[in-house]
Structures are given as C-alpha cells and as structure tokens.
Amino acid sequence: MASCMGCMLGCLFIVAALLQGAAAQTTHEVGELIVGGYYVWKVPSANFSYATWSANQTFTVGDKLQFNFATNDHDVAVVSKAAYESCIKTDYYSIYNKTSTITIESAGEHYYICTIDQHCENNQKVAIMVSGSSILSYSPALTLLLLLGAASLFFFF
Ligand SMILES: [Cu+2]
Predict the structure, then answer these.
(1) Which of 14, 51, 71, 117 is the most exposed place for a label (fewest CB within 10 A)?
(2) CA end-to-end distance (rounded Å), the chain
(3) From residue 13, how far is each of 8, 17, 19, 20, 51 by CA, in Å?
C-alpha cells in the first residue's frame, strides 16, 4: 500500500513538473503592435525596431514564433545570416506565404526576412538568439521538484 502511494506521489510530482515545463514555452508574436491591439509582421514604422524587439525577449528551444500578416502583403523566409544581412531573397531554407507559427527547433541564431518588394531593405527582418534550454535547466525549482518526484518513486518502491 505504501509503495503504491509513493508511486502515485512520485508520478504526480513528475507530471506537475512536466506540465510546468510545457507551460513555460512561449509564443512570441513577431511584429509591431497596431491600432486594434494586433501584432503584425510588417515594415517597421519609425518608432519600432525588430532588433530592439528581439533584444527584449528571451527565446528558448520549443518556443513558437507567430508571424501575423495578410497573404500577399508579406511573407516570412527563414534565411542564413548572410542572406539576412544582405537581404538575399532567393536563398532561403523555408518560406511561409500566410500567417504562420514557427516552432524554434534549435539553439543559436535564427534569421527571418520578408522577401516582398523592398521590405527587407526597409528593415522588415528579425534575428533572434535562442538559448539551448531543456526542462531541467529551465529552473532550479523545477529541477528540485523532478528530483523529489524521482526520489519518492525510488524510496517507496
Ligand atoms: Cu513584407
């Protein structure tokens, strides 16, 4: 009976920790806040900068980038650093032609540009730096919770 309780307690701890880890993943709306309260992927106005936007956010593997825009007005091309810097629009890893949510799959730098007209030259492009984070490295409290869960499993079995 005691081992059953311990097992259940351990499982609950781990499930709670995993749920908290999943909830920690963020969806970043990549864009400028417009009238009406929407974030839109667009050519930045004078008082908005994608560089500043990016610098003020924390990106973690598993986070999502949401690009909102009207089809044909813009697109999102995932590009290399060189293509980002020089606005090379024909050399991309993938491209999205309508409002899209892109999951960040890996740590490091990621680059996105709009290939429509001169939008990229007018700074409709964003670079993000993604930290390599797992659930365990996400927070010390979470790690402790996981360890407690595992320990109670071990102890009661
Ligand atoms: Cu555009």
Answers:
(1) 71
(2) 10
(3) 9, 6, 10, 11, 40
CA-based nearest residue to 17, from 148, 157, 106, 151? 148
Cα–Cα distance measured from residue 98 to residue 50, given in angstroms and rounded to the nearest whole number: 19
Please say whether the beta carbons of 135 and 17 come within 8 A: yes
Burial of 112 (0-12, 13-18, 19+ CB in 10 A): buried
Whose CA is closest to 32, among 21, 24, 43?
Answer: 43
Ligand 1 centroid to Cα of residue 99, in Å, is 12
Q: Are 31 and 42 in contact (CB under 8 A)?
A: yes
Q: What is the pTM of this model?
A: 0.73
Q: What is the DSSP string of 36-51?
A: TTEEE-SS--TT--HH
pLDDT in tens, 47-58: 999 999 999 999
Rounded distance from Cα 107 to ligand 1 centre (Å): 26
Ligand 1 center–CA 65 separation, angstroms? 16
